[in-house]
């Protein structure tokens, strides 16, 4: 049944169960395991993205007023790169990995065989509604799984477009799209999946994880968090400011899980940093940023109200040093910088996920690391410095999903690096080969023949057999250790045999 047919009727638990049953039957046929099927589906995603590029850009503009530049670079291009890499490397990813066997079970050989998990669910977020929906799907298909995609209802134009395009381009017996909101997501979460990938906030992440526990389903959670950016003095402040601005406001106007959520610098350096950020904001978005076509709008009125609440809190609104302008009718909030907001304020205790950037001042830059560690582990953390000792300390002491020195968000474009959180910012990772591995099971396989069978592993058990096995195991399975243990075993058996003969002779 095609996706569009599924969505023409109410979608509840009964429909979800029927869909999963059909997908399991398709997966059980073995078709998704073939190299040819995987390649054909990856190429179809590539074609779909290429042929409908303008429709995708228009959908993203409708949902978020996302600038075309951001739509192409941060969504379309990254998705194409994922497909290109998977198509190039798929044979090597699928190939069993030969590993050393143990001389303890000589002769034998061993390998690790990657196999698909089965039928997986991908629940997407609204801020990057194309990339976050389909980047995990690339990995799931490359690994040989059947997939259900649940796009975010908060990006309705992109959700509708994904349902149409995936229905037209993909093998609907193995790849489905389910549109909808809480009811549809709940119906999906009631089913048994072989893995669930969820991108979004921690509150829903807990719901997803609780649902998965019922079926012992593994989860991949990308949950964001308060990503800090530490700024040291003695740096190229113009370059640093530009990179901070584009990482914060040039990434969906701050509505990105890896955007800097707050900054830390010394009291002495803060005025210079603020002025540098102001200059670059004016250069990039003009004196009236609410009119800029290079800034995304806030996704909806609920998020607008949430951000307004953070900004209007007592003891916070007076800390604005730049920006703060708002336009409710167009759901726009200008890039806003705040200095020395109270640590107990909402803006410092909730993930901002918007165009507000508080700056916290400390006496020494090193104090920033201790402050970061008092909170939950973030999805990303950034440091701007020329001090090698400080870089080393940052990498060694700050735990986060990913770290970047002297830039922001660029680690997302490096396919050889995993993307994922740690602690409350998420679990599991994907991107590049890590996407393939995220949706694969590494199956251990041992091959043996019938030669080389030794009696020491079989009853009747004796102290001599135990001694031999223990010595072989303690030796780490080295061939010389085993030879030495065999020699001792033979010597002991020889002495045992001689002693038995002597006892027999004496008795005679």
TrEMBL record:
Keyword NAD listed: yes
Sequence similarity: Belongs to the aldehyde dehydrogenase family.
Organism of derivation: Rosa chinensis (China rose)
GO cellular component, one term: cytoplasm
Active site, per annotation: 222, 257
Protein name, UniProt field: Aldehyde dehydrogenase
Catalytic activity: an aldehyde + NAD(+) + H2O = a carboxylate + NADH + 2 H(+)
Residue intervals of the Aldehyde dehydrogenase domain: 12-445
Gene Ontology molecular function terms on file: aldehyde dehydrogenase (NAD+) activity
Key word Oxidoreductase present: yes
GO biological process: aldehyde metabolic process; response to abscisic acid; response to water deprivation
Keywords noted in UniProt: Membrane, NAD, Oxidoreductase, Transmembrane, Transmembrane helix
UniProt xrefs under InterPro entries: Ald_DH/histidinol_DH, Ald_DH_C, Ald_DH_N, Aldehyde_DH_dom, Aldehyde_DH_NAD(P)
Membrane-spanning ranges: 468-492
Gene3D superfamilies, alphabetized: Aldehyde Dehydrogenase, Chain A, domain 1 (3.40.605.10), Aldehyde Dehydrogenase, Chain A, domain 2 (3.40.309.10)
């Amino acid at each position: 049944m095609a996706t569009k047919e599924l969505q023409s009727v109410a979608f509840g638990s009964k429909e979800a169960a029927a869909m999963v049953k059909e997908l399991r039957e398709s997966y059980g046929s073995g078709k998704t395991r073939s190299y040819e099927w995987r390649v054909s589906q990856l190429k179809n995603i590539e074609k779909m993205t290429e042929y409908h590029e303008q429709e995708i850009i228009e959908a993203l503009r409708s949902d978020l007023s996302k600038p075309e530049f951001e739509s192409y670079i941060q969504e379309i291009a990254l998705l194409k790169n994922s497909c290109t890499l998977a198509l190039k490397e798929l044979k090597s990813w699928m190939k069993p990995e030969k590993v050393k066997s143990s001389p303890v079970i000589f002769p034998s050989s061993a390998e690790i065989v990657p196999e698909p998990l089965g039928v997986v669910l991908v629940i997407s977020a609204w801020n990057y509604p194309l990339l976050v929906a389909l980047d995990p799907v690339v990995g799931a298909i490359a690994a040989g799984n059947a997939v259900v995609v649940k796009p975010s209802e908060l990006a309705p134009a992109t959700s509708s477009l994904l349902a149409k395009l995936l229905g037209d381009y993909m093998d609907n017996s193995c790849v489905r799209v389910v549109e909808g909101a809480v009811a549809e997501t709940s119906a999906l979460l009631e089913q048994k999946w072989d893995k669930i990938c969820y991108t979004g906030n921690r509150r829903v992440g807990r719901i997803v994880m609780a649902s998965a526990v019922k079926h012992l389903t593994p989860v991949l959670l990308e949950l964001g968090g308060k990503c800090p950016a530490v700024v040291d003095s003695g740096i190229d402040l113009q370059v640093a400011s530009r990179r901070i601005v584009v990482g914060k406001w040039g990434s969906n106007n701050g509505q990105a899980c890896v955007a800097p959520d707050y900054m830390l610098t010394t009291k002495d350096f803060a005025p210079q940093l603020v002025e540098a950020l102001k200059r670059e904001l004016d250069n990039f978005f003009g004196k009236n940023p609410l009119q800029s076509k290079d800034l995304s709008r806030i996704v909806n009125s609920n998020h607008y109200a949430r951000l307004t609440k953070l900004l209007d809190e007592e003891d916070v609104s007076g800390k604005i040093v730049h920006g703060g302008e708002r336009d409710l009718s167009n759901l726009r909030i200008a890039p806003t910088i705040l200095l020395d907001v109270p640590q107990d304020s909402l803006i410092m205790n909730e993930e901002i996920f918007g165009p507000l950037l508080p700056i916290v001042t400390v006496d020494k830059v090193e104090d920033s690391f201790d402050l970061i560690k008092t909170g939950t582990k973030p999805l990303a953390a950034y440091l701007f410095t020329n001090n090698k000792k400080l870089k080393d300390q940052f990498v060694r002491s700050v735990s986060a999903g990913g770290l970047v020195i002297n830039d922001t968000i660029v680690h997302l474009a490096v396919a050889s690096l995993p993307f994922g959180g740690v602690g409350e910012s998420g679990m599991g990772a994907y991107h590049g080969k890590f996407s393939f591995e995220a949706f694969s099971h590494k199956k251990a396989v041992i091959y043996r023949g019938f030669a080389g069978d030794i009696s020491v592993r079989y009853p009747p058990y004796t102290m001599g057999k135990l001694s031999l096995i223990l010595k072989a195991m303690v030796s780490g399975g080295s061939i010389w250790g085993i030879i030495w243990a065999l020699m001792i075993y033979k010597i002991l058996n020889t002495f045992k045999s001689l002693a038995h003969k002597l006892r027999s002779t004496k008795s005679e």
